[in-house]
User: Which sequence fits this backbone?
């Protein structure tokens, strides 16, 4: 565990840290400047297979404004799975807050895809009247 911290590496001809060039800047082998910073912007993380009810509850919260994902290309599985349908079915009744039931029966929700969980989160927000949300995918693919 990294205590919700991660490293940001900026590569460019003129990499600039938040305060301008700093001791964190250095030259790479390709004569590019690199700025390496440790960022502590996250305060929590949930694993959907372990706590599907808590994930859906938080996706439904009106205070939540961003769905942020960090996944590989394999996380965008299509077609959807039977577990996706289970997530969507319970999401439609989000006003009743069925989240504890999901945690008790988590095997029914395991194997859901990222697309299925996002869709369920959006459906739950609609059912609960929670308003819109931004979806941010932070792909974990070095070539991007």
Assistant:
């Amino acid at each position: 565990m990294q205590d919700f911290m991660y490293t940001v590496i900026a590569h460019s001809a003129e990499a600039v840290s938040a305060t301008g060039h700093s001791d964190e800047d250095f030259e790479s082998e390709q004569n590019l400047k690199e700025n390496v910073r440790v960022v502590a912007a996250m305060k929590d993380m949930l694993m959907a297979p372990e706590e599907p009810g808590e994930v859906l509850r938080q996706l439904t919260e009106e205070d939540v404004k961003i769905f942020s994902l960090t996944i590989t290309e394999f996380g965008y599985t299509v077609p959807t799975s039977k577990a996706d349908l289970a997530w969507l079915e319970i999401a439609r009744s989000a006003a009743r807050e069925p989240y504890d039931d999901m945690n008790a029966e988590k095997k029914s929700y395991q194997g859901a895809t990222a697309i299925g969980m996002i869709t369920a989160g959006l459906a739950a927000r609609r059912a609960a009247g929670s308003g819109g949300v931004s979806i941010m995918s932070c792909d974990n693919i070095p070539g991007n």
User: Anything to note?
Assistant: The longest helix spans residues 114-128. Confidence is low (pLDDT under 50) at residues 17-24. The CA atoms of residues 13 and 30 lie 10 Å apart. The helical segments are 52-60, 82-91, 99-104, 114-128.
